[in-house]
Design goal:
Layout lengths: L12 E2 L5 E2 L3 E2 L2 E3 L4 E3 L4 E2 L16 H19 L6 E5 L2 E6 L4 H11 L2 E5 L5
Parallel strand pairs: 8-9
Antiparallel strand pairs: 1-2, 3-6, 4-5, 7-8
Length: 125
């Protein structure tokens, strides 16, 4: 991320080990494929409804196997330009959180691990 001084983010707290933490913050900027370049100052935010969450259903053996393949494929996915922020089994599918859920990313994940549920960290304004 470029264009932000973490110490100036609303709600920032410095932990005893030197790390800094914030609450939920809304970031607005442009994504160049690897970096978020802020165009507005960070603002305090609340979670949007329908954002990705933890599993609602017990994972099936198929979903657990697909989740394990993601770990094995991690470097290949990075080589393909697919950044995965988080993933977990949910019922018979694997849920992914990615920076941007563009069509190529969703299709690649579905083809390799389908069925999948893909949510994006960044949203189009």
């Amino acid at each position: 991320m470029r264009g932000v001084d973490v110490q100036q983010v609303p709600g920032v707290q410095r932990l005893s080990n030197g790390l800094m933490t914030t609450g939920i913050v809304r970031l607005v900027g442009t994504w160049d494929g690897s970096t978020l370049n802020l165009t507005e100052p960070p603002r305090h935010a609340t979670p949007a409804p329908g954002r990705p969450g933890r599993p609602a259903a017990e994972a099936t053996p198929r979903a657990l196997a697909a989740q394990q393949r993601v770990g094995v494929d991690w470097q290949e996915l990075k080589r393909l330009g697919i950044q995965i922020l988080e993933y977990w089994p949910d019922g018979d599918s694997v849920a992914f959180l990615v920076p941007i859920a563009d069509q190529r990313t969703v299709q690649t994940l579905d083809h390799r691990y389908g069925p999948v549920r893909v949510s994006a960290w960044l949203e189009r304004a």
